[in-house]
Prior knowledge:
Elements: E1 2-8, H1 15-21, E2 27-34, H2 41-47, E3 51-54, H3 59-69, E4 74-77, E5 82-84, H4 88-97, E6 105-112, H5 117-133, E7 142-145, H6 146-152, H7 162-170, E8 175-184, H8 187-192, H9 196-209, H10 214-221
Parallel strand pairs: 1-2, 1-4, 2-3, 6-8
Antiparallel strand pairs: 4-7, 5-8, 6-7
Amino acid sequence: MLSVVIPTLNAATTLPATLAALAAGPVGEIVVVDGGSGDGTAAIAAGLGARVLAAPAGRGGQLAAGTRAARGDWFLLLHADTRLGAAWGAAARAFMAEPAHVRRAAAFRLVLDDDHPAARRVERLAAWRCRVLGLAYGDQGLLIARGFLERLGGVRPIPLMEDVDLARRITRHRLVLLDAPAVTSAARYRAGGYWRRPARNIVCLALYFLGVPPRVLVRIYG
C-alpha cells in the first residue's frame, strides 16, 4: 500500500488541487500532518478524505510524525503546494513493481506553475541537481519504501534541510528521477525573485554542507 504523507501549514488554497491530483495514482491512504494552520487546512483535508494529524510546525518533524503513523509499505512524501501530473500514477506503479527499487528512492520532475522564462531556468537547475548531485528537494515529491526509509534512519525532525539531509543518506546512485511532472507553486520565486531566491537557497545549502546547524539556517532562509 502507498501512503501519501503531506505536511501542511496554512495550505487551504493549494491543498485541494494537490489532493485531487492524487486520484491518478495507486494511493492507499493520505496522511496530512498539520502544523497548526489558522485557515481551515485541517478541516479541508479531513473533508476530502485525508487522515489528519497534528504536530509542531516544521516539515521535518511533521514528515517524521506522518511516516510513523502511516500504514503503507511505500511512502510518497509530498508538499501541499505540489500537484503531480496525470502520468505520476503509471510512473509510481512501474517504480514500485521493480524489486531492486525497495532500496532506492524516486523523485518527480520539477515544473513551476509560471510561464516566466526564469522558471524554466530553475527547472533545468533542479534536473541538473538531481542528476549530478543526487539532491532532490521536497517540492519534487519523494517515493520511497518503508523499509528503506527506516534503514536510513527515517526523516529527521530538523527545522530546515530535512529533504537535503534525507537525499544525502539516499545517495545519488540510489535516486531515480521519474519522467512525470511535479507542478509546484512558483509563488515564493515570484515574491523572492528568480535570482535572489535561488541564490539564497545556494547560500543556505553551502552553509549546511559546512556544518551550520539547521536552526541557524532557518533565520537566513526565512
